[in-house]
Amino acid sequence: MTRRVRITVPCSTANIGPGFDVLGASLSLYLTLDVSWLDGPTPAATSVPVTPYAQVTYSGEGTKDVSLDPSQNLITRTALYVLRSQGVMAFPAQLSIHAHNDIPLGRGLGSSGAAVVAGVMLGDVLGGFNMSKDRMLDYCLMVERHPDNVAAALIGGFVASYLRELSPEDTEAKSIPLSETLDHPMMGKRDKPPQPPHGIGHYIKLNWQPEIKAIAIIPKFEVATAKARAVLPTSYDRPDVVFNFQRLAVLTSALGRSPPDADLIWQAMQDKIHQPYRKHLIPGLPEVFATITPKTYPGFLGVCLSGAGPTILALAVDNFEQIAANVQQVLKNTGGIDSTWTLLELEARGAHVQDLLPQ
Ligand SMILES: Nc1ncnc2c1ncn2[C@@H]1O[C@H](COP(=O)(O)OP(=O)(O)OP(=O)(O)O)[C@@H](O)[C@H]1O
Ligand SMILES: N[C@@H](CCO)C(=O)O
C-alpha cells in the first residue's frame, strides 16, 4: 500500500547575541517534504542496488542550487545514513519526495539544520523506527556538529543546548559517519555505518514572550557557515568570555518576562565571541548595531547576527516596518547591500510528521 506523509521543519536563528553555539529559536519559515512510498518489507542488505533511488523534486528557496540526486542531496543523504545505520540498506520502493523550502540558503536562518532534521525524520519514518526526538537529536548531531540550530528546529521554541563530553570510544564512533557516510561517496557502499552514541545533545526549552517578534533582514548574498566559523579565534581572553556569560545568563530569563525590558535585553544581546570577528563578512553590520537602540525606536528590544549571518535579527514588540526599513537603509548606505525583510514569530511546535491519506 502507498503511504504518504508530510514532514514540516521550521527555520531557526542561532546564538541570539551572546549564546554562541548554545541558544536557538525556531521561527515561522518552513521546509516541508511531501513523501510517498510503497510500504512493505525493507530490502535485505545483499539485494540492495548500489545507487539509492528516489524521485526528488524541489521548489522554493535553493531551487537552482540544490541537487536532486539522492546521493548528493543533504536531506536524502542524511535519511540514508539513518536507515543504513539501523540495517536498512536502501530506500523503499517507489519513493517520491517533493521538498518545498521557504528558508533561504546560507543566510543564517538554519537552512542546513532544517535539511538535516528533515533527513533524520525522513529516515525514521521510512524505516518505521519510531525514534524519540532525543534520539533524533543524536543523529542530527552526527551531521551538524553545533546543537543550536538542529535542537531548535527539532524541538521548537526557544532552546538552550549543550553537547555531552564523549568518551574516547564514543568520540571515535561519532567521527566515523561524517567522514565515511556523508563526506565520502557512501552511496556505493554496503557497509552499515555506526549508530550515534546515545545522549550526545541535551537541551532545555526556555520561556519566550509571544509578543516578541523577530524581524529578519536578509541580505541578498550568502555566507557559508563554514567560512563564518573559520574566521573565529581558537581561544579567547577571560574578560570577553565573562562578558558573554553575564549577558547569556540574563538573556535566557529576560526574553521570558512580560513586559520585556528593552534596556536589559538590548544590553544582554551584546556579544564578544563571534560577531566582532564576523563583521567584515557583512559590510554595514557595526553601523547597524550602533544606530538602532531602544531609544531610537520604541518597541525595539535588541539586534544580533542570526546564526553565522548574514541575516540580521532584530527583536521587537512594535514598530516592525520602521525598524526593518532603518536596518535596510543602513546596510545599503554603509555597506552597499541590498536586502529583503520578513516578520517571523516563534514556532513552538518544532519539526513534525503528519500522515496524509493515500492518493
Ligand atoms: N533544503 C535543502 N535541501 C538540501 N540542501 C540544503 C537545503 N538547505 C540547505 N542545504 C545545504 O546547506 C547549505 C547551507 O548551509 P549553511 O550552514 O552554510 O547555511 P545555513 O544553514 O543557511 O546558515 P546557518 O547555519 O548560519 O543558520 C546549502 O549550501 C546546501 O548545501
Ligand atoms: N552557532 C553557529 C550557528 C550557525 O549555524 C555559528 O554561529 O556558527
From TrEMBL:
Gene3D superfamilies: 3.30.230.10, GHMP kinase, C-terminal domain. One of its GO terms (molecular function) is ATP binding. It catalyses: L-homoserine + ATP = O-phospho-L-homoserine + ADP + H(+). Keywords: Amino-acid biosynthesis, ATP-binding, Kinase, Nucleotide-binding, Threonine biosynthesis, Transferase. Pathway: Amino-acid biosynthesis; L-threonine biosynthesis; L-threonine from L-aspartate: step 4/5. GO terms for biological process: homoserine metabolic process; threonine biosynthetic process. Its EC number is 2.7.1.39. It is an enzyme of class 2 (transferase). Residues 73-157 form the GHMP kinase N-terminal domain. It holds the Pfam family GHMP_kinases_N. Belongs to the GHMP kinase family. Homoserine kinase subfamily. NCBIfam families: thrB. This is Homoserine kinase. It comes from Bifiguratus adelaidae.
